[in-house]
Amino acid sequence: MRRVDRVLKCGTLILVLAAVVMGCASQGGQVTLIPFTPLASQLPASESDYIVQVGDTLNIKFYYHPDHDLRDLIVRPDGKLLLPLVGDMQAAGLTPEQLAEQIAQRYAFTLREPKVAVDVKTANTGQVYVGGEVQRPGIIKLKPKMNVLQAIVEAGGPKNTGDVKRVVLLRSVGDNQFGYRQLNLMRILRHEDHADDATLAQDDLIFIPQTGIAKANVWVEQYIKNMMPFGTPLRPTPVGF
Hints:
Layout: H1 3-21, E1 32-35, E2 57-62, E3 70-74, E4 80-83, E5 87-90, H2 96-107, E6 116-122, E7 127-132, E8 138-141, H3 148-154, E9 167-174, E10 177-183, H4 185-189, E11 205-208, H5 212-223
Parallel strand pairs: 1-10, 7-11
Antiparallel strand pairs: 2-3, 2-6, 4-5, 7-8, 9-10, 9-11
């Protein structure tokens, strides 16, 4: 996905996040919010099951024709590779073994016994955004099988003002459609229910809202303390109840 597309998508997710946090949905049918349960990791359980993705860097080896070896080929945003003599061919969505077989079939018209191997030199696992009450909000690199808790740790962990019982996960699931899920990560930390965690996908957005106490403290700071003349400290006064 191009950088501009990622920025636009991230901006849309943030707007949808605002609707979720405020407990409302966008009007006019422009955006649909869909409660969802993230599936198990879409990344492979083993290297042999890896699925080639956009942005991956591949090396292609021709065993009997080493002069045709290709190095550092990057899978284009359209999921294709441009190969000498045979032109464009689809790479994204195939395992390295499937891609190697298809390359061999394409080169069979120009080479004798084209035995081919495809090596994924660099996997493009993508990125996710972690925001809200975390120490270092921003974009982090998505690692294979990364879950929500791990992503929050990568962002420095939650602040004391963060409500880890109401973490929001947003994911684009179609045109103007976004899946959302509220997670209680305290259940994970207490080893009560690992189903409350979720494996992440590319471009997911994780948001930790403020606790009710934190919001109250902000309100006091903004609307009471900062309005006191001469920096007079705020001292609570017993009122007899």
